């Protein structure tokens, strides 16, 4: 099903405009309208093309990306995954959109697969985020077993169910069922939003083309993790332990990543660590109960 509420509407507005700008920028970035390169190969950035003007003089101009169509297919699927995640009315189809984005991030970070650094970065990003996703899937299974549904209305709209989950022990580290399932889902956010200790993939994600860096950092990938945390806030807020864990991880990540950014020389890595730090602020805000501050 589909659910558009104030949170979903606000997210859609910002995501839609940012994605549109990235699509438009990508057209010029990949040199649309330019000739094909003389020695360009798939999997490597274009090197340029030689053209002859009307006077017979040869000039070297920028050449079109050899895999231009493939790039737009990937970022189109990426955007589809994000929209699926945002407009879904249940955690299951949210997870489907979540995994589509994970696949596209793998394909786009390693878009120039002829470079070893890009191949290494795409594998690192895929495996790191999969760690978080496995725990998230466990949380979904446990929540479905306890609640019998994964719809937002069925879980977060039922005060009786939330109270039952908050007062029923899970048998794991003294956590209630609400605390355990909330933390398992939150680990998915830790992976996707690059929070400590699963932050290591994001700086290396800069190996992809610049529009991919913008897509992952600004518009979709990392903000999806915060969106999930806001969605499950009614569940997590039933457990003080879960909120404490969120606030500690968020606050530590904000300070930790900002400190690393100070020592970086590459501007794209500075931006990556800055992004991690800002996401940490958002997670910390959720952990201390500042729901609206994290959302907007």
Q: Which helices and strands occur, and which strands form pairs?
A:
Blueprint (H helix, E strand, L loop, with lengths): L5 H24 L19 E4 L5 E4 L6 H20 L3 H19 L6 H32 L4 H4 L3 H9 L9 H16 L8 H4 L5 H10 L1 H11 L1 H4 L3 H23 L4 H21 L3 H5 L1
Antiparallel strand pairs: 1-2
Helix pairs in contact: 1-2, 1-9, 2-3, 3-4, 4-7, 7-10, 7-12, 10-13, 12-13
Describe what this molecule looks like in 3D.
- α1 packs antiparallel against α9, α2 (68-87) runs antiparallel to α3 and α7 runs parallel beside α12.
- A two-stranded antiparallel ribbon has the order 1-2.
- The model has no long low-confidence stretch (mean pLDDT 88).
- The chain contains 14 helices and 2 strands.
- β1 and β2 (58-61) form a beta hairpin.
- The protein is mostly helical.
Keywords:
single chain, 296 residues, two-stranded antiparallel sheet, elongated
Give the count of helical stretches: 14
Q: What overall geometry do the principal axes of the alpha carbons give? A: elongated
Class per helix and strand makeup? mainly alpha
Largest sheet: 2 strands, antiparallel
Provide the low-confidence segments as ranges: none
Major sheet strand order:
1-2
The Rg value, from CA coordinates, equals 21 Å
What is the structure about, briefly put?
This protein is mainly alpha-helical and 296 residues long. Helices cover 68% and strands 3% of the residues.
């Amino acid at each position: 099903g589909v659910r558009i509420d104030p949170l979903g509407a606000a997210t859609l507005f910002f995501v839609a405009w940012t994605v549109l700008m990235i699509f438009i920028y990508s057209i010029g970035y990949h040199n649309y309208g330019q000739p094909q390169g003389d020695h360009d190969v798939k999997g490597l950035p274009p090197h340029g093309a030689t053209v002859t003007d009307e006077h017979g003089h040869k000039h070297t101009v920028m050449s079109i990306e050899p895999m231009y169509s493939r790039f737009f297919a990937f970022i189109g699927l990426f955007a589809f995954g994000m929209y699926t995640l945002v407009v879904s009315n249940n955690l299951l189809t949210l997870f489907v959109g979540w995994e589509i984005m994970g696949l596209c991030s793998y394909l786009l970070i390693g878009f120039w697969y002829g470079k070893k650094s890009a191949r290494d970065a795409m594998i690192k990003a895929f495996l790191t985020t999969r760690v978080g996703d496995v725990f998230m899937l466990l949380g979904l299974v446990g929540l479905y077993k306890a609640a019998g549904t994964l719809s937002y209305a069925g879980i977060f709209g039922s005060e009786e169910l939330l109270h039952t989950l908050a007062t029923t022990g899970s048998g794991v580290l003294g956590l209630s069922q609400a605390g355990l399932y909330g933390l398992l889902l939150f680990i998915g956010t830790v992976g996707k939003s690059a929070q400590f200790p699963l932050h290591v993939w994001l700086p290396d994600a800069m190996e992809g083309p610049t529009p991919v860096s913008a897509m992952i950092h600004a518009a979709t990938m990392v903000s999806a993790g915060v969106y999930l945390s806001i969605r499950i806030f009614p569940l997590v807020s039933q457990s003080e332990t879960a909120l404490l864990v969120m606030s500690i991880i968020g606050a530590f990540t904000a300070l930790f990543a900002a400190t690393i950014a100070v020592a970086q020389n590459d501007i794209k890595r500075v931006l990556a660590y800055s992004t991690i730090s800002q996401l940490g602020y958002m997670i910390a805000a959720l952990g201390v109960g500042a729901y609206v501050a994290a959302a907007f």
